[in-house]
Amino acid sequence: MKNKLKDFLLLFTGSVLVALGTYFFLAPNRIAAGGISGIAIIINSLIPKLPIGGLMMCMEIILFLLGILVIGPFFGGKTIFCSFSISGVILILEEVFPNIKPISDDVLIQLIFGVLICGLGMGIVFNQNASTGGTDIIAKIINKYFNISIGNSLLAADIIITIAATSIFGINIGLYSILGVIINCTLIDKVIKTLNTYKQVAIISSQGEEIKRYIMDILERSATIYYAKGAYNNNESEVITTILTRKQFIQLKEYIGSIDDRAFITINEVNEVVGEGFTFS
User: Fold this and answer.
1) Which of 35, 109, 174, 256 is the most exposed place for a label (fewest CB within 10 A)?
2) What is the pLDDT of residues 197-221, one digit of tens each?
3) Does the keyword Cell membrane apply (predicted)?
4) Domain 198-270, CATH
């Protein structure tokens, strides 16, 4: 129950970030940086009476069904939660801050901030095996069946929208939209990689039993033991290996330092871990 609550809090946080970046930075400048939000911005510019949030909510229904059919109901359920969270937050923002205007004359700065905020939010959502709806669902399908990164899959799905933005808003806004899509897709891959980076640790210590108990009892991780012989004196040593999050590694490092300042530790970064104790996605 605690893990599920954490997952949905992360999904909601990511969704709110996407809504804020879209409404305050991209939409006022008519920057259609891909996705359903980009399509909604284009339609809203042509028919201002149609609200961006409402347009997004309507267009997402068809793609929801596609995601549920192709990827599965669990993915579909989380995507529905994220998509309606984004649309709902934008609808609320439209009521609280109606007729929002660009916050500065520098479109590039607003593009960068908007895309950074949206890309961070989308990366968090994708890392929870969900999507923000719209073309993100298409990107997830491409990622599943063609083993292309989420960022590159999203780039392929969004390029048509940026071309449409160019034809409607002009070459300058179109080029900003293309730049936004490229930054966004690159950032999403970077966020996912960062969130899935773990520390693979190998430890040789005279306090091996205490360290093993700390890993299992306090950090609640397992460990693998193997034996190695030193080349200098041919002594056989016990090597403890484990994989930890960044926070857990810091805790372990501090603990080892407090009980054995002569311990030998090697650390490698691991970009993805699946299996017992870790999630499959």
Assistant:
1) 109
2) 899 999 999 999 999 999 999 998 9
3) yes
4) 3.30.70.120
